[in-house]
Specification:
Number of helices of chain A: 2
Order of helices and strands of chain B: HHHHHHHHH
Largest sheet of chain B: none
Structural class of chain A: mainly alpha
Number of strands of chain A: 0
Strand content of chain B: under 5%
Number of helices of chain B: 9
Oligomer: heterodimer
Order of helices and strands of chain A: HH
Distance between the termini of chain B: 39 Å
Chain lengths: 47, 251
């Protein structure tokens, strides 16, 4: 399989990677936000 | 031991911490398999070409958006009937993830709609009712954060979510009840038109999202429990009891 072909997604790269990219971004964002929330509350409880 | 044993935040807190990582691992593994199958193994669609691969995240996201809302509504019923604090906390823990999946369903739907139907958005029954679902999630979060008295906030939130749950069957059956631009069911009990090589990655991704949502909700409910019960004696004990385990190396 050719990687250029894979990334071009049959000339539909914008739509396909725009979807999968948003999916990855939102999941990473949620996990990062959750980590900060956990850290904050743990610090508060610890003191 | 009663069935309500784990309905108490103090007993659920450590349990949630123990099981959440397992769901995260399952989510990561299924996600990797699902993406591999969906992006590399599934054949090209003869009508739509490559762009149809959006289905592997669009449909799971849309299912999760509806499912998480129904789970929240079930917790809402429990919160109002049994008055369990944990039920309300679970609602609060699930809402952001539900909203996220709703945003994803709408976003990926728009990016799929443009090349296949020629438009990012139409005020069609399914899309409009999904947008209303997003407003319900956001409305719930805004409502519980706007009321200072936590008990009242929980009650109002539960009521809103329960009343709003009429919207879920409307979303689900909209493609059948109305003549929509949106296509029909992706998986049907009979006469499903989807090839197994395409259906499989979609189902694997759905289970990945499922495990992910459980892991994230359990982690978030732990933060919520601490935020709400920080004055409680058991929370104080949590940190008095744990140091010997970690301080050994440092001492």
């Amino acid at each position: 399989m050719n990687w250029n072909e894979f990334f071009s997604m049959g000339e539909r790269a914008f739509y396909v990677w725009g979807s999968f990219g948003a999916f990855a971004l939102l999941i990473i964002g949620e996990v990062v936000l959750l980590r900060t929330r956990q850290k904050k509350v743990r610090q508060k409880v610890n003191t | 031991m009663s069935i309500f044993k784990y309905a108490s935040p103090s007993t659920f807190y450590p349990l949630a911490g123990k099981i959440a990582p397992w769901f995260a691992v399952v989510a990561a593994m299924l996600g990797a398999v699902g993406l591999y199958l969906g992006l590399f193994r599934a054949p090209v669609d003869f009508q739509q070409g490559e762009v149809y691969r959006i289905i592997f995240i669009h449909v799971p996201a849309a299912w999760m958006a509806m499912l998480i809302y129904l789970v929240m509504a079930a917790y809402g019923v429990m919160a109002l009937t049994f008055n369990t604090r944990l039920s309300s906390m679970m609602m609060e823990a699930l809402a952001p993830t539900g909203a996220m999946f709703t945003v994803l369903a709408l976003w990926t739907g728009a990016l799929w709609g443009k090349p296949t139907w020629g438009t990012f958005w139409a005020w069609d029954a399914r899309m409009t009712s999904t947008l209303i679902l997003l407003f319900l999630y956001v409305g719930y979060l805004a409502l519980i954060n706007a009321i200072d008295d936590k008990k009242r906030a929980d009650k109002a939130g539960a009521l809103l979510v329960i009343v709003g749950s009429v919207n879920v069957p409307i979303i689900y059956f909209s493609v059948k009840w109305w003549n929509t631009l949106h296509q029909g069911y992706s998986v049907a009990t009979s006469g499903s038109s989807m090839d197994p090589s395409m259906r499989m990655p979609m189902l694997v991704m759905t289970f990945a999202c499922w495990a992910y949502a459980i892991a994230v909700a359990l982690w978030r409910v732990r933060a919520i429990i601490l935020e709400r019960e920080k004055e409680a004696a058991w929370v104080a004990n949590l940190y008095v009891a744990s140091p010997p385990k970690t301080s050994g190396a440092r001492a």
